[in-house]
Design brief:
The protein has 249 residues and is α+β, with helices and mostly antiparallel strands. The chain has a domain of 72 residues: Integrase, N-terminal zinc-binding domain (Arc Repressor Mutant, subunit A). It is 46% helix and 24% strand. It is built from 9 helices and 10 strands. The strands form 3 sheets. The chain has a 4-stranded antiparallel beta sheet with strand order 3-1-2-9. The protein has a 4-stranded antiparallel beta sheet with strand order 5-6-4-7. Strands 8-10 form a two-stranded parallel sheet. Helix 6 crosses helix 7.
Length: 249
């Protein structure tokens, strides 16, 4: 499992304080709004919206917040103009980083993203400067919990998964984006409890960093993820368990 995926999982398991949770709810609401605008407010007919709602519920976002976000997207007179933007850049040690944002102010967002890169000793790149190093994937995260990882992997592959990675007690299933829902349903039908389902950008190859550089890269990823307009951050850095433990501690 890629190092950044491990770090994202650690953060989900640790939870967040009230301030962080409020910021997360804002990001999740924006995700729901955009999904509902693009595909309608019915989760049964809009997989992207259904996935956004699942993520919101996994983060313990109240149902009232979810319903308000859908109503805001589908109601008359909605003036929100959220735009999906992707930024690419280089972090410490030359790590490739992709930043996915939802914003109503391009100038503000690019300024904040550029500043975060600069503070970490990195720099914002041009479009397609690092995107070629990643592949779009659906990602399903599963806790083993006594189940047979090989059996889970076979179920996932039979349903159309392109890759399955096992790391201690965690399984990460990768799919083509269009196959994510099919594979998820097959796993659930087989009795597999799913921890998280999401779309991601998976690096084709990862880079290992020394501890000092790795911690600098983690600080940059966290700084970017803390920005209000940033929804996701993807990196090709492979962080060791020792580095993650040192940083988390």
């Amino acid at each position: 499992m890629a190092g950044h995926s491990k770090w994202a999982q650690i953060k989900r398991q640790k939870g967040a304080n009230d301030a962080k949770r409020g910021a997360l709810f804002t990001k999740l609401s924006r995700e729901i709004i955009v999904a509902a605008k693009q595909g309608g407010g019915d989760p049964a007919a809009n997989f992207k919206l259904r996935l956004a709602i699942q993520r919101a519920k996994a983060a313990n976002m109240p149902n009232d917040n979810i319903e308000r976000a859908i109503a805001k997207a589908t109601g008359a007179g909605n003036e929100d103009n959220l735009e999906e933007i992707t930024y690419e850049g280089y972090g410490p040690g030359g790590t490739a980083i992709i930043v996915s944002a939802l914003t109503d102010n391009r100038n503000r967002t690019v300024s904040e993203v550029r500043h975060a890169f600069a503070r970490a000793g990195g720099n914002l790149g041009e479009t397609n400067s690092v995107a070629w190093q990643f592949e779009p994937r659906g990602v399903i995260t599963i806790q083993v919990n006594g189940k047979d990882p090989d059996e889970i992997a076979l179920t996932a592959i039979d349903a159309g998964a392109v890759d399955v990675q096992v790391d201690q007690d965690t399984i990460e299933v990768h799919t083509a984006p269009s196959d994510l829902e099919t594979v998820r349903k097959a796993l659930e039908a087989a009795g597999v409890e799913i921890e998280n389902t999401d779309f991601s950008m998976i690096p084709k190859m990862t880079v290992e960093l020394d501890e000092k550089t790795a911690i600098s890269a983690l600080k940059l990823i966290d700084a970017l993820e803390d920005l209000e307009d940033v929804q996701r951050v993807y990196s090709n850095a492979d962080f060791s368990d020792a580095v993650l433990a040192a940083y988390a501690g």
